Amino acid sequence: MSDQFQEILDIPKDFVKDGTMFINRCTKPDRREFTQISRAVGIGFIVMGALGYVIKLIHIPVNNILVGGA
C-alpha cells in the first residue's frame, strides 16, 4: 500500500522535473531562424487561403446546380 502511495506522489515530482528540463533546453530563436519560421507560416497561410478560395469558388456553382438555382 505504501508503494502505491509513493508512486502517486512521484507523478507530480516527475512532471515538474521534466518540465524544468524542457524549459532549460528551449532557446530563443535567432533572427535567421525567426525569419525562416515566419516565411513558412506566411506561405502556409497563403496556400491554405488560396485553396479555400478555390474550393469555395467550385462549391458555389455546384451547390446551385444541385439545389436548383435558388
Explain briefly what this protein structure is:
By secondary structure, the protein is an all-alpha fold. It is 87% helix and 0% strand. The protein has one domain (2-67).
Structure description:
This protein has one domain. The mean pLDDT is 90. Helices cover 87% and strands 0% of the residues. The protein has 70 residues and is mainly α. The protein is elongated. Belongs to the SecE/SEC61-gamma family. One of its GO terms (biological process) is intracellular protein transport. It is found in: Endoplasmic reticulum membrane.
Q: Share of helix among residues? A: over 70%
Q: What is the C-alpha radius of gyration, as a whole number of Å?
A: 26 Å
Main pleated-sheet profile: none
Helix tally equals 2
Q: Name the average pLDDT.
A: 90
How large a portion of the residues is in β-strands, by DSSP E?
Answer: under 5%
The run of helices and strands is: HH
**Count of domains:** 1
In total, the number of strands is: 0
Envelope shape: elongated
- The poorly predicted ranges are none
End-to-end span in angstroms?
71 Å
- Which structural class fits the helix and strand makeup? mainly alpha
Layout of secondary structure:
Blueprint: H1 2-25, H2 31-67
Features:
2 helices; mainly alpha; single chain; elongated
